[in-house]
Structure formats: C-alpha cells, structure tokens
C-alpha cells in the first residue's frame, strides 16, 4: 500500500533492512529466517492497514427495521465503562406505523456490588441520516428509579435478520478517531446459540470493529 508506512519510519527501516540483507535468496537456516521475518512484517503491515477510526466502520447496507423487528437474545457482549446489563439479556423490537422503532429489553444487573435483579428498559430509535438507516440514535429509560436513562449511538454492524445481529455503540472518541469507551452485543434469534458458519461471520465483524478478543459470553438461563 503506497505511502502507508511513511508514518511508521521504524517499521519502514526494518523492512528495508530485511530486504537488503536477503536480496539474494539465501539457503539453509537463513532462508528459514527470511520466511519467518517476512511473515512477521507482513502481519505488521496488515495490522497497520486496518483502521480503527469509528467513522470508517461499515454498517448493514439498506437496513430494514421491519425485518429486524421481533425478539433477539444476546449471546456475547463487550461492556462499556460503568453499569451494564450482566446476563439474560434480550430485546423485543417493534416498528410503529410511522416507521419509528422502539424496544423493550430485559437483563440482569448487579447494583451496589451485591444486589442482582432483572431490569426492564425501554428505548426509542431515531435515524439522523436517512441515507444510513443502520446508524441510529437510541434514547433509553430504566423502568425503575434506580436504573439509568440516557442516550447512545446504536449501529447495526451486520445482520441477516433471521439468525444474528451485531450492534455497536461508541460513547466517546480518542483524538485519533478510535473509540475510547464503547460496547457491542452479539444477538441471536435463538437463545441456544449460532451455527459455526455464522460464528465465523461474527468473528470477522468483531475484528472489523476492532473488538476481537474483547467479548464475553452472555448467560441465557431464562432468569428474566
């Protein structure tokens, strides 16, 4: 990728040194070392090419709220900072006659460090830019005085409507445009899980939003 490494002079210098030292194909151990080092630098170059700027993240094309409506169960989550639903998370989405999407959600939450309860939440969704319907803004309310209310971005990164959905929200950005505090949920229509083929898609999407390895499973025991 022309110019990509210009902003990383140390890596660029190391790559140049590698090629100068091995410009004639070596044999034996040196050849093995060359292949090993070339693989490492290729991986480094690939990681540098991937941007974690939130605005660069792709979302679901031509998102259709009516197909998205219905019951979803969270199978995995990446928590934000602060209080967040713990397990048994589910959401029921409804599309009103005027096209507005609303949701009622449930999940267990731990309050004061010891009190675990089932929390009920309500949310309403607006679309700031009609050209990107998968990028919504969510206003939510806890249906009890001790639960929080507020608003977050709500992006549908990907969904096939029938099996899985991946949602994403970033609450604050770093100076470079990457996310400083955000969260994501992996939803399924089936609380028992997703088939292997779809799990592979989900892992790829986790990488694309720079959250690979940060998710934890969500228990679905029917407690709520």
From TrEMBL:
Pfam family, one: Lipocalin
Keyword Amino-acid biosynthesis: no
Gene Ontology cellular component list: extracellular space
SUPFAM superfamilies noted in UniProt: Lipocalins
GO molecular function: retinol binding; retinol transmembrane transporter activity
Keyword Disulfide bond tagged: yes
InterPro entries: Calycin, Lipocalin_ApoD, Lipocalin_CS, Lipocln_cytosolic_FA-bd_dom, Retinol-bd/Purpurin
Cystine residue pairs: 52-210, 118-224, 170-179
CDD domains hit by this protein: lipocalin_RBP_like
Span of domain Lipocalin/cytosolic fatty-acid binding: 69-205
Location, primary (coarse class): secreted
Keywords: Disulfide bond, Retinol-binding, Secreted, Transport
Localization, UniProt: Secreted
Protein family membership: Belongs to the calycin superfamily. Lipocalin family.
Protein name: Purpurin-like protein
